Amino acid sequence: MSQHPAPWSRPPASNSNPATRPGEVRGEGRGAASSTMNGGPVPAPVPAHDPSQVPPERMRTLAYHRLGFADPRHEWWKPLVEGALLFFFFIVLSVLFTIPVLLFMDNPMDLDNVATMNQLDPLIFFFLFGSIALMAPAAYLARKIMGPRPLGLLHSVTGRLRWKWMLQCGLAALAIFVVINGLSILFDLMTGGEALEFTLAPQWGWLLLMVILLVPIQCFAEELVFRGYLMQTVGRWLKHPAWAILLPVPLFVAGHLYDVWGQTSIAIMAITMGVITWRTGGLEAAVALHVVNNCTVTLMAMVGLADLSDTSGGPVEVLFTLAINGIFLLVVFRMARKTRIATSRTIILPPPPRLPALAQRQRVIGQNGADLAAFVVDPRTQNYLSLPEQYGPYTVRDGQGRPVGLLDVRKTSSPQAPGGQSGSGSDTNQGCTP
């Protein structure tokens, strides 16, 4: 995993100008990412030692969901191949993972129905959460093959995981969960609810170990795919962040076998984690929320306060989810402003190609009989364009729009131009006649 940005790409410092909003892009588009243009290959980008000396037209600011454009080898079809590779690697790893686990199970046929499984059985718990965690290596392998580079762009706009920031978000999420759950239990007791009865699960030591070691990896793997790969895939095709946030939500919800109330809560969490990933420029805050949520539910199930196999819900659970996620959003937004966390990545495009020497310029003849050099340049990218031969000749105009002659790019020999000069070239004849 690369821990450093590409030499031609410079992530913004943590104290970068906060006036640049996430998703705000200047002049971003196909021309900024393609490795080829009409006139031929674009020169490789070069590093800029002093970004303040770089003209604004060569700067591009990318939000997290648009980081695919940080790779000069980006192509629109690459996310499709990356997704196919991710699925293939996940299936292969799942088979290799499942076979040895089944050998240790007394009744492997119990795995055909998740709702009837005893998820507090350490082996079943390991199988369920471990199989989801396999999405992480599958995602890394697919991104390693297809790009964009560096690999760390899957984590954040800085090209790496910001561990300190993730820890801060995790502590904030933990505090919110403790307070909200505590108030909920207290309210239930004050309104005549039953007293709490703690029942410690058998083999709780193994479960606790897996909560500490395995559940965070499982949560990270889900975020890597649903908020990492999918958001950046949508962002390569659709610019507005709402598309990248909302389109992966149905896929995330479909992976949870709950009733309509439970899936509504899952959708709220998915939207929250998508928004916070875009707003903070990385997966860290979403991973922190996901880890604290899953660990809290699992720990409560270990002491008899929750049921991991329960797929039903209700309006109260939805309101509970709205409260936790809404408060977490507000807290993290304030933390991000206070710490001035990087929310976008600035890339430097290559300089426009230099004009060829005068002796190498193909000449055309103007109306006044003087020799002129004609070049067709894309005003957006400053790259030379090739004119289709079958549509020539072309009218050449001066700065005031007045015609000064014809530019012939046909391969056949052009007529003798005034002044006794011919406009023939080696590959494409370029002659200019009045």
Automatic annotation (TrEMBL):
A matching Pfam family: Rce1-like
InterPro entries in the cross-refs: Rce1/LyrA-like_dom (IPR003675)
Residue segments, region Disordered: 1-55, 392-434
Keyword Phosphoprotein: no
Transmembrane segments: 83-103, 123-142, 163-186, 206-225, 237-254, 260-278, 285-306, 318-336
CAAX prenyl protease 2/Lysostaphin resistance protein A-like domain segment(s): 205-295
Protein name as annotated: Type II CAAX endopeptidase family protein
Annotated keywords: Membrane, Transmembrane, Transmembrane helix
